[in-house]
Input
Amino acid sequence: MWRYFVVFLACLELKVSAEGRDSFHEQLLLKPLPSGKVLAHFQFVVQSNADFRQEEDFVHFHLFPRSLGQLISTYGVQELHVSLTQGLWRTEDWGYPVRSAPPGAEAYAWFATNSSLDERWRDVTNGLSGLLCASLSSINSAGTAQPRRTLEPEGLDQGNPSSRLRYSSLPREIVCTENLTPFKKLLPCSDKSGIAQLLSAKSVMDGVYRSLALHVRPICRVSSDIECTSLGLELSLSLTQVVDLLSYHSTPNWSLKKLFRSQLPSACPLATVSRAMVDITQNQTLYEASVTPKPSSTQVLTLFGHQHTLAVYDAHKINSSRPVNIIWRYSTPETYAKVPKPVFFIERLATGYGDQDGGLLVRLHNTHPDNTLSLTYMETTLWYFRLLLHTMQATVNGQPVDLWPNLTYVAAKDRKKPHQLEFDLQLPPSSVLEIRMEFDKAFQIWNEFPPDAHHGFYMSSGVARVLNLKSINASGLLGLPQSFVMPWQSSHESLLVHSPPLLIMLPTPDFSMPYNVICLSCTVVAIAFGSMHNLSIKRFTLQAAASTSLKDRILKLFRRGTAQS
Output
């Protein structure tokens, strides 16, 4: 009897301790964009006291998803970032996103130790492929780079050298409903309650831009602990969507019912914070609009020197039987004002001609009239785009500039390693850095081509990190950082920007010729085999010819003529 009582107390203590380990926040940001589009950014954050250095912390789970926790613990992952994106974020028209992500799939991670990094990276991508139902398992050493300058840890710096970082991208990967379902299963309440109920597959797929992201980073358990003697883990799951309502409706007015075919439900029972926010920063300046019903409160945030005013709706105050429909109405006809150009943006073009000679043109723009931008830029291209480094030319406003002292280049190996180019730069005010480089297009084996070979091959997006945005009054920043409403807001003031990928044609064989040869060969073989087989199995017998008289023949012709008449 006492034995069962002791087991019961142990289980009760374990349950109470586990419940005190994790916290969950769910939030939705709605922001009107120019030309009638609406940005919707869902963010779900789970904080756990599990230390990635301690395996015993990943034995019992409460709110942190067990499948992801076991993956992190088994392969010693210290920080992980994954995104799946479909569509192109138009920075010059919409401003900066909440978090930049390239089209397709992007994944990079820091590991805790240096042992067997390539094998562990392969196992992690295979695990993520099954976890998110994506094609991340196709990531291999030929597409994996090791950035040294551009990417920085977002969590607590535990001495993360670049040697423990692995980065890869798949520009051709897209976002489907099969990715959304396992994404929602990672949430503590799934899509059964809370803000995640708005994530229906049809409403998400209707957007002109959609991006799923998963970010894991180490944090300090106690914010007041300066030395941070105890570590925790933060999981951030986000979905960013841009909806073009004018494609379906005649007016730019929008509501939750129009966007998601649903209303704001009550909070998830496990959530400490559950709220929806509407960015009303530009209200009464570029346009006049009203938001109904009245928000629970109003919050003002100062980010990168720019103030954002948010109307906050607390989902904890919403009755589960009476959801709230947030409605945005323009008081006057909306005027599509010209959006100020962002402080920094990237242009990227493919040059060259023919099936052998190709070229790359990159333009980095600094539109600020007074301040110099400190930035790093990275290009990673697969081995079949053979960069010719000696052809690289760089100019700033037409004047030659020397990038060689601050440039790092790692040459590719065929089918084993990609090209990697990184450099640091001080970009003067109101200037454009233009980089030109040539490359050769390599021949591939016929079975290395994708199913749609004539579609072309994608060159991965370039990545730039602007380091000194904190000292710039970047009023063109229309987005908010990842932890925009979190008390543990990141101290990193750098901005990550991705360029568009490029679609390039490589020398492609005529795949119709094998088909024609196969058809012709099969036809010849069938005819020859059929004739020989017919002759070999048919049995010939002699039959005496039936003799007929002249009288019978005449009667037969007469009967035939009678039948035809």
Observations:
- The chain has two domains: 19-335, 344-471.
- Residues 344-471 form a domain with the Immunoglobulin-like fold (CATH 2.60.40.740).
- The CA atoms of residues 304 and 474 lie 6 Å apart.
- The longest strand covers residues 231-244.
